[in-house]
Amino acid sequence: MDSIRRGVCSYNQEGEIECVCDNLPLPDTEEWNETEYRLALVRKGHVEIFGFLCEWDMGPTLFNKYGVSRPSQLKDRMRPVGTILSRLQGVELSAFSDSAHGADVAQAFNALRRPDSKREGIGITSPSKVLHILLPELFVPWDQDIRAAYGVDEGLDGEDYRAFIGFCREELRSVLREASVDARQCAGSFYAGGWKPATKILDELHMAKEKRRPPHFSR
Q1: Quick check: helix, strand or coil at residue 181?
Q2: Could you list the residue range(s) of the whole structural domain that residue 82 is in?
Q3: Is residue 218 assigned to a domain?
Q4: Which one is predicted more confidently, 116 or 35?
């Protein structure tokens, strides 16, 4: 839990700001809310997800490389993933089984990535973020730095993402065992009301470590 605590603290810093570890859980106020993320998480509509992706700097890649410049275009790209995700409803990261769920995870990612026709997909990073919004208890976002850190940057397809989810499951299970809590209790330890899922909190640790965010990971 200490490593995740430092990750959440560092993730919430903008520059050299004092540590907020002693203030956890962070209050449910606008200061700590990521508005576009929370809106997408609650509504799960293509308009809100498009806004969330743009806020997370995915816009230029979507516009220029994949021809997705409007929410309606994102909706069209997202449509094939719905049936696959219906098979994963209710699966949480800590209960992920590669034999039972791995093929569907890879297929869901590839439905958005479109490795056979990449221009018809939404990239490499955006699929993980869309999947996270649609099933936040299972899917963990990634980016180029995180893929490199976990050694899942070879094929850049669903099998790499499947392997990444397996690594994330082991990380989360280790934390939950150590702290003797479940995923929802873990989430509530860092954000009042537990509104951010444990998968996002794990992502904040990844981002803080790999991007060397202060105060805990600046060196």
Answers
A1: coil
A2: 2-210
A3: no
A4: 35
